[in-house]
Queue: 3 jobs
Job 1
Amino acid sequence: MNFSRSHDTKSEEFIEHYLKFRKKAAPPSQVTAFLCWPPAASVRLYRRLSSQMVPLCVHNGCSRWPYPQPPGPDEMALFLVDGACHCAISLLDQANASRLFDPPNTWLILHSNEDEVSQHLLNDHNLDTQISIEGSSDNDLDHLQNQDHKTSLDEWDKKEESGPSIKMGGSYQPGDIDPRLEESTRLDVHKWNALMNGLNLHVGTQMFLGIQTLDGGFLLVEVYRMGRGQSVVWQLFAEWGSQDVIRATSEPELSRRRMNLHLAPLRVVVVVTNNDTLQHFYDIHNKHIDSISKMGFVLARHAVEMLNASLVVRYDPSWGYMVNGSWDGIVGYLQRDEADLGGTAVLYTSERAKVIHYLLMTTPTKLGFVFRQPPLSTVRNVFTMPFSGTVWISSAALLAVCGLLLYAALQWERLSGDNMEDPKVNDYLKSMGADQKVSWSDVVLLSVGAVCQQGSPIESRGTPGRIISLFLFIVVIFLYTSYSACIVALLQSSTNSIKTLKDLLHSRLDLAVEDIIYNRYFFEKANEPIRRAIYQKRIAPKGSTPRFIKLEEGVAKVKKGMFAFHFEVGTGYKLVSETFEEDEKCGLTRIPYIQVVDAYLVIQKRSVYKEIISVAFRKLQERGFQSWAWNRFYTKKPECISRGSSFMSVGLIDCYPAMLVLVYGAMCSIGVLVLEILVYKSFIGSLLSMKLFVSLLLVAAVIIIVAEAFPSSFKEISEADPPSIYGRVLGFISARLANIGEVFQVVWRALSDTLAAIFSSRETPVISPRYGGHMSLLK
């Protein structure tokens, strides 16, 4: 077993103080030491570090050095290497092949004044052998600088030939090596520089050399590379001397020490879906087109300028989706190490998170179905809404009481005989039908006529009857006025009943989606039942073309009403502000569909630029650049400042319940006429009282009309929780009336056949003046 030829305790003290220094900023989770020290020195080092509560694993002697293992995720490992060991360079080559120089790993290589073994290894090592970095040769960089940008989207797929389209800055010139390294140490700087150039070092590498000075102290030097194809940078980081305290000579935070990349190239890929965007990345011309890309590119450009790097831009029409087993778009560029940063924010998915790293949120993107709230009459029967259930019941009870009292007064007037002494008046009253008997149907017609502001063929000639009629008309006129005023307001009102995706699925609104690649992906991949049903039934039903349309077309349909359009609101609201009338901007509602968080800035997995890019973008946030860019390229939701300033026209759908009552009333009258004819022709009148039969028929007709014209009232009562006895009865009745249409069809066919047979054999019916010309039963 070979050990170092000489060893002093200064190295042990320096390592101990270095760990104390590191623990103040970012303490390592574990320390792995590869040493060639005497056993006693290794034991002393183990004891020193154990007192600092630092987990340590010491491998002493080259024959005991294992293959360096990468630490677990999110672990900050420190690798300590004795530069005097003859197998140190082999260890560095193995670590280089395993990418152990990537953050957050830290390396500390010790070099003492007596390290003859290190000098021997440097002389024997083939310094001409360089570890290649993909796409990082100087010729490639010069080619990237001189490459003209492309404006045709047809050449996006030629990734290897397309090159960057924008290049800012020139070539990087490495700084001079600190002369103190040669004056105060015995380090062969040029040979060590050639060795470091053969390693895959980068701007995120934390490689430190602890170089012993001639006076017994140590210089802590960090070695890294600014970018691909650049020379290695040597920067003095700290000093350790007789005071036993490490004194930092530069910023302790890596992100602050390396914010200047000296024009090293930084590759950015941006999503472009329209050729026009290439000419308007910085202005606000058609800012609703590729807004997320324009905002992301402007922020990336400011961040690159803050880092003093050269911007190399590529374009692609896709954010990144799995196609034929491989990723395309931004995700594909980052996965294949063809880009360092995504210039367009990317929505989060678990599949993408496995191959790229989501750094921070830069674009507060909001997606969803946007629509104008439909008129209230499209979802509710507005003719039942002016009064509450209690008012309806009270009004009906009042009409019933007035009807009973009026019937009693009219009957008393008929029974009291003629009270008029003037025979001419009596004759006139008789001609008006005042001497005729009063039936319940007459009283019902009088009450309904009062409600509907209509007259009646029957009038009371006595004081009691007139008083009752007067109070009836007074009460009804107040009810009529209140009802009419409420109806006018309700017909101009919109509903807020559509609040969830389930409401949207079962609504009368037509649905469509903006034709953009991420919408197609997320809608086709939706697996939640409601979202899947919306896509399969409302967006892309079988046998029809999927409803993916342009943004301008969708916003125009939203303006007309009864249409829900899914788009990115920051871009769509620009068209809404420009094309909608002021009153049309009121009532806009958004229901989210895509179950993702806001779009995030993305970089490579284990990116070497992770820390400095994160700091640069957070500075842009703190200084207001992100808010400025959002306000520049996005539009806020239009404000409603003139609600109720205009009126909507009443359509057929608004009058549907009223027309339904009219239609059912006409059908009932025709049915009664047919039944009168049927009863008269078949001599059923002798067996069944016509008045009773007609009364029962009218009651059934009223129940049918109410159930059909006002189904919401029955539904609300029957679905009450907990259900009352009254609710259960109405629920039973409404359920039985659900098939009333089929029953009417069967009865109508039977009546038609019977009438055809009767009219061919019976005599012509007699017309009775008692019923105003209607058919009646006369024997």
Job 2
Amino acid sequence: MEFIIERQVELPHVCVEVATVQWFDVTETPVYTCYKLSQRLSEDHPPLRVGKLSTPHTFPRTRSVVFLPPGYSARLFPIEKPLRLLHCDFDRNFFEDITQRNLESWQKHLAALLAMRNQRMEFLMQKLYAELDQPGFGQHMVIEAVCKLMLVELARHAQQLDIAAAKDQVSSALAPWQLSRIQERVAVSLELGYPNLEELAKLCGISQGHLSRSFKQATGRHIHKFIAEERIQAAMRLLGEDHLSCKDVAERLGFKSSAYFSTAFQRLTGKTPSEFKQQAVNQDLEVRMELEHRFM
């Protein structure tokens, strides 16, 4: 990678620089240990294609801003011509003290911060670039003041992301009637067959993706696992009946084969259906013998 620093100012808690970079092969960046804000300065340049992050492209336009917290690296794909950037590397303790937010609170908004749309942040970074490009009296004081304003603006931006995420969470939650419909439908599966995700989504009037997310949010369980566990609970009850074989139980529960039923049952219970049925028979025999002894 070719990395040419044009201008740089190092302060106790932040380093700001204008740099031109270019690389010709797929390149892995080091894992960053600081909080990094960068702005694209190049006028005529396509978006930067990246890997290992939650977005396939960054820097879609001139003056667009990208934020990356510590602990991440990126895979950079080749670019056709040099890319000019403004970088701000913040000391972790200083950054978190000013923004009053820890690393985890920034990580949860990573996708949005990699494609940030914030005009005030873009304006402040342009002010910072102007100070680097044409330094004047009190340059260090101006840079420090602008950097603090940037962190305040970034913290406000994160607050808005928190509010938006909270609204999405509320709007995506299952209503009580929807949860009841799912439970009632699964409860009659021995008569109607076990439902798939498409059927349950139609019952609730929502998409399959929405159902998966909202069911997990409401119950703490994945809906596929909920159905599988209910199915095995029904199998345990049926295996306790003397007149039903393991094959009969598998057929009643809609398993494709006895072998598939045995695998699914053992995965959740730690026993094969045959072992469980024998245990149930032995326990039932012990109970009957105890009752007979008690009433003799």
Job 3
Amino acid sequence: MLKDYLYIAVLAFRDISHERILSFCMACSLGAIFTPIIILLGLQQGIIGNMLDTLESDPASRLVRPKFMSQSPIPLDTLEVIRQSGIAFIPSETSHLLLDVKGMHDSINAVPSSKNDPFFIQSNPIGVKDNNKWVVISEPLAQKLGKIKGDNITLLLRRTTNTNYPEEVPMDFRIVGVLNFELMPDVKMYIPVDVFNGIYHWRKGYEISALGLMGSRESNFQPEYDGVITGFSFKKPKSEDFRQMLAGRLPFSSMPEVYTKLTNSGESTDWRLWQTVNNTITMSDVQVLNNALLNYGYDPQIIPYIENIELDLHKSKVTKSWYISMLPENLSPRWSEGTKPILYVSSEDKHFSGEQQLLLKTGIKGNKVKIPVLLEVSDQVSPGFIVASHHFSGLLRTAERLGASYDTEQYKFSLSSQEQIRYFRVYSESIEELDALVKIVKGVGDDLGIHALKEPVSRLYEVQKIRTLSDYMKKIYFLIATISGISTVFAVSASVYATVQRRRKDLAYLNMLGVDKRTIIFFPFIKSMILISIGLVISFIAYWIFGVLASHWFVDLLGETASLTRLKIDYALSLIIVILSLGGITSLLAGSLVTRMDSQRYIHE
């Protein structure tokens, strides 16, 4: 039996050799059917693969960050959840710093980084070791400075002291890496996150001993405000003056609005409210605004502004709450550090006067802080409101934002944690895991009500768009492959049928010589599989030629190293197996005509 199969196989090879021209034409026709399938598969894998490779090689494609800087510090346990969800996590107290560089007229955007930062790794850093005074710069910045990797760069750290005296401290850093233009087209630098936060604190007046930076500010808890209320009695305000002031260096970016909620303000006074956007100001910022107004000939009344701070009465049987209101300094309670704060309530709430304990919700989680106070009655206060001194009102705003605790013995606020993280950058391990990381950050934002995290910034849309394009291309390829598969069935069936018809007398002789018909079926099967294999070889040669030509023609679009087509081995093997299986099944079905062949009739004819 085995000898018969071997004999039939030899006959199939000899028959192809005998009809070499006809067989070659048949193989070429099959190759013409297979070639578009292989080229389309290569184009699909190549185009989508190049897009995904471009995203994968760019660290920004795996980056997730808040939409804007959070006003309140993000809880540390929440940050730990986000940290564990990515491969690189860089927390910071602000999003960026504008630093001056020696030899540059304009300030440079500096962002925090670490040795795990993909941007740091992509720069191929050298000579980092334990040195924390390193910097990675972009190629445009390197060109402007005329610096290369390994050179030193001098940062000019500048701040204004409490006495309004400008201070400048030069600090040398070593350039350990340069990011090419494709990765970072902007003029930017990356510095270690501990150095970044240290410079941020130093600018606020604190001493940073690790960097050798001196400071004059002892307390890290200063009053903050949501804006400023300015009253104009003599010179009426002009919008043109305000526009010119906003064009200068003011902590405000929008025009002031008419303010009518100030009680007992006087009919002749025009009150305007200056508000910040997603930010707070300090008394030094208030003084800057006051000086600017004085320069324009105004003599304003200045009242710091506090918005939506609620204080609850700490009594088990009484439910009472007030909102902070602001009055001019001479009508507000006095402030004395280290003593119990005095607050004013309206005459309707005079039964609450005396020593009381108030509750303030602080931080993102709204932790309640107990504050012992002395309540007094004032006719200047409207019902439902409570008035504190300007200084203590600012401390309440700071405590509410930072999530502070209150010392009931020393009557002062203090930070619950020294880490005041309000911004971060986190990277997913791959673009496939970007979606999951974005969902985790969004979930944290929804749970805690942090608007900056509810819509994190990422390139998830670009990744999803490429995946959607890939899905559509797979559907198109499936349709074309299905049509080509049907063509293959007809082509192989026609070839087998023609083979059987041409060789029916020879096959009849074989049957008369004792070869079983089920064995004879093997003859058209082997011949078809050989022709299909030759057709596959021709199609893969055509695919290779197409790839070479496409790479040369589209070199400006793809670059010298990229290819328009890409066909992985597993895809190629799967395609070959499918084609051979389809051709083999078709050959056996078409070759079944041999079983209905009347050998005696064919020999008689």
